[in-house]
Prior knowledge:
Number of domains: 3
Largest sheet: 5 strands, antiparallel
Strand content: 15-25%
CATH architecture of the largest domain: 3-Layer(aba) Sandwich
Radius of gyration: 28 Å
Number of helices: 14
Shape: elongated
Number of strands: 14
Helix content: 25-40%
CATH class of the largest domain: Alpha Beta
Oligomer: single chain
Amino acid sequence: MEYDEDFLEEISSQVDLVEYISQEIELKRKGKEYFGRCSRHLDKTPSFSVTPSKNVFYCFSCGRGGSIIQYLQEYEGLSFDQAVEKTCLLTHTDVSNMCYSPTVKLLKKLRKMKQRVKDNEHVIIDESEYQKYDKLPIEEWLNEGIRQKEIDLFDIRIDKRSNRIVYPVRDLQGRMINIKGRTRFQDFKSMKLMKYMNYFPVGTMDYLQGLDITLPYVKQDNEIILFESIKSVMKCFGWGYRNCASVEKHSVTYEQIRLLIRLKVNIVFAYDSDVSYKTKDIVDSLNKLKRFTNVYIIEDKEKILGGVDAKNSPSDLGLQIFEKLYQNKSRVR
């Protein structure tokens, strides 16, 4: 059974714990608390306490403690569900009102995150920070089929000092909240360099890369296609699939899930060929999202992308291959 924590706290507070426990354990008042001998072990010096102001118990000897529900479990041998049911009987509460679905549970968790997100708001970076990087031809991306038009639209530049391709990270209002760089060194692993790096602290991962540009098309098409990198977004944008964005990694954060739910559109995951949609974190994300909208995945079942070792994005082998994979996408049930 799934129970609403607020309701559990409410019914627990309605039981006078001193009165109830006194039926089993003799309690004597000492200051603001009541003490007695714990019935679960030899207790020569009373170590079992009840604090009326908090309506909780605690045994300083054996460490048992909690509310009425924990007392019923620890001292009357009830299961959690049985303890909840008995608490409902004691407070004349209908237990069916306490149950709630995983969907409501997720919504409650997402609502509680609002304050945490507010407390971790991004620092807005001055545009002058990005102007020091150079607008130069990015031959490797042009050779991969990304048009100069999209390179200019997404404002991709070169950090000559560290030999990185850089691009701005923006929120939905278009404000710059980070700068991300991708190394141009082919042997970056042997050089012990990171392939991608953020130039500023990341903070809350509550954005989707490129969505500040593609949002109108996402709403227009009632669908968002999620890739792992901005390169795939740009390539598809040039093909006319402009309703895309990048997660920038495999797993989806709760903040990103909250953002996707607010979009109220269908979601298509188009991850690289080396990613399994059966890994726990991805399965968890898919299960959360499918409660609110239609969720689809693009899988390379025929290995036309080259399989796991190739690590190709659905967009890497051209428009024709991408369209075939997209048309064969499957809905997450």
